[in-house]
Structure formats: C-alpha cells, structure tokens
Amino acid sequence: MVALASRGLSAFSSSTPPVIDRAALACFSGQMEKHYPVDWKFTQVHPVLIALGKQLNGRRLHPTLIRAFESRSDIIADHVSTIRHIRGEDIGRRKGFYQITIEGPRFSGTWNFFSGELKALINSITPA
C-alpha cells in the first residue's frame, strides 16, 4: 500500500483506473516473473525444447546448429515445428533472437527467446 501511495496510486479508488508509470510496471512485471515463473513442462513448446536439447547434446547454441529444425513433423503428431534464428541487424536491433513456431490442427503458436534465455531454458529441462 505504501508503494502504491508513493507512486501516486490508490488501491481504493474505484472511479477511475490508476495510471501506472513504466517504472512501476517494470517493477510489477519483474515480481510477477519471480513469483509465477512459466512451468515449461505444461506448455505445447516443451517437446520442441526437449528435441532441441537432444540435438545440441551439450554444445553451445548457434544458428548453424538449428538447421535440422527448419520444418519438423516428427516432434508433435500432426504438427510442424520450426526453429529459426532472426538476426538483429535484419530487424534493426542490436540483438537477434530464436523463434520457435508450432503449426497444426490442435494448436499453433510462436515463442521468441534471446540466445541466453533459450540455452538456459534448455539446460534446465533436459537431462544432463
């Protein structure tokens, strides 16, 4: 409550929604990630992450190592899984990222990860 009041926000104001500045939002988002991390075992992307971990086999993640994931239908039945690297300079940014896409009749989705995030995630869910 003190943190809200110090930022000019009131928890009891019901007439108008509070305006949250970027600093408060970043603080709240960081706390949410710490308190409610994603359990990747229960997401559709988990089998793809496991397959990528097996493909890497302890090697450092690099765009040349994901060529085998350009279009795979053997990971999730009736779905096509793709992993690609998007270079930062191609999109006008300093850093690129890896994009995992799954398309199929039951679900479709796209997940973006920076290199370090994806490698840490793979290391945390694949057996050593």
Report what the structure shows.
The protein contains 4 helices and 3 strands. With 128 residues, it is α+β, with helices and mostly antiparallel strands. Strands 1-2-3 form a 3-stranded antiparallel β-sheet. A hairpin with a 5-residue loop joins strand 2 (97-103) and strand 3. Helix 3 packs across helix 4.
Helix-strand string: HHHEEEH
Average pLDDT, to the nearest integer? Answer: 77
The number of helical segments is 4
Count of extended strands: 3
Shape: globular
- Main sheet: which strands, in order across? 1-2-3
Structural features:
alpha+beta, 3 strands, three-stranded antiparallel sheet, 128 residues
Secondary structure elements and their pairing?
Blueprint: H1 2-6, H2 22-35, H3 46-56, E1 80-86, E2 97-103, E3 109-113, H4 115-125
Summary, kept brief:
This protein has helices spanning 2-6, 22-35, 46-56, 115-125; strands at residues 80-86, 97-103, 109-113. It is α+β, with helices and mostly antiparallel strands and 128 residues long.
